[in-house]
Structure formats: structure tokens, C-alpha cells
Amino acid sequence: ALERTFSIIKPDATARNLTGAVNAVIEKAGLRIVAQKRIQMTRAQAEEFYGVHRERPFFGELVDFMISAPVVVQVLEGENGIARYREVMGATNPENAAEGTIRKLYAKSVGENSVHGSDAPDTAKIEIAQFFAGNEIVG
Ligand code: CMP
What are the Nucleoside diphosphate kinase-like domain coordinates in residue numbering (predicted)? Predict the structure, then answer.
């Protein structure tokens, strides 16, 4: 079924002017960008977004990175969109990412890994709602 997922083009990618390059991979993979905006995340937004990782040793570093430059937040739509986008992104650590994936092509490290995508339908709903009003998503 058609499914929506939440995506972030992260600071390492926006800083290198790779927004269009990442979007080209997304669109070639058959995913449709149905909402998109470039924002400077606040510390509070980043801490809320990554709340499940609060106890991890890399949490502080992760939040600092996510507010270090603008990000592009997106809603993507496609058949099996959540799993599809995870394939397109590649493994979290670019060293393990498959050829042709966004992270293989562009990510710098496990922390500066260019993109985020939701991992399940319930988290996709929550993540989309944190950044977009219903009327900002046009399928
Ligand atoms: P993301 O999919 O956005 O969700 C959690 C993020 O934590 C993940 O991508 C990585 O960028 C980041 N992350 C995971 N492991 C590490 C690590 N060992 N050091 C720094 N960042 C990490």
C-alpha cells in the first residue's frame, strides 16, 4: 500500500550542497516528495526528535550535529514507503551501506550519515507530526 515516511537531509549533506543530489536518488527510487522544508532545528526540537536515544553515549554529539547547520525535513510517499526508503538510504554506518545507496554515495561517518528515515509506521506518524501540519503535505 502507499505509505508515508519521514526523512531528514542532515547537516553534513546540506552543508555540502547535496540536497538536490539526495532528492534525485529519492525520486529515481520511485518515492515522491510530498512535503519538504529547510529549517534550522532548535536544540529542543532535536532533543525531542531523538528522545529514544537520550541514554545513549552519542546523544549529546548527535544533538549538537543536528543543529550545526540547516536540515531539510521531508515527507516521502510510495509503495511500502518506509522500508523502501530504508533500502534507498543504506545501512546507518556508511562502511556497511550497499552500492548506490545515499549513505554509500554521500555519508561521512555513522554520525554524519546524511539522511534519516523512519523505522516503522508508528514512528513515521509521530515524526511527521513533529514537523508538518496536515495541510502542508500534498500527495
Ligand atoms: P538516525 O537514523 O538519524 O537515528 C539515530 C542516529 O544516531 C543515527 O541515524 C546515527 O546518525 C546516530 N548514531 C548511531 N550510532 C552512532 C554512533 N556510534 N555515534 C554517533 N552517532 C551515532
Answer: 2-139
Q: Rounded to a whole number, what is the largest CA-CA distance in the chain? A: 38
Task: List Cα–Cα distances, 7 to 56, 112, 127, 130, in angstroms.
Answer: 22, 15, 9, 12
Q: Which atom of ligand 1 is nearest to the CA of 8?
A: 3
Residues 81-110: what's their mean pLDDT? 98
116 catalytic per annotation: yes
Q: What is the DSSP letter of 68?
A: S
10 annotated among ligand-binding-site residues: yes
ipTM: 0.93
Alpha helix (H) ranges present in the chain? 11-15, 19-28, 43-49, 59-66, 81-89, 102-106, 121-131
123 annotated as belonging to a binding site for a ligand: no
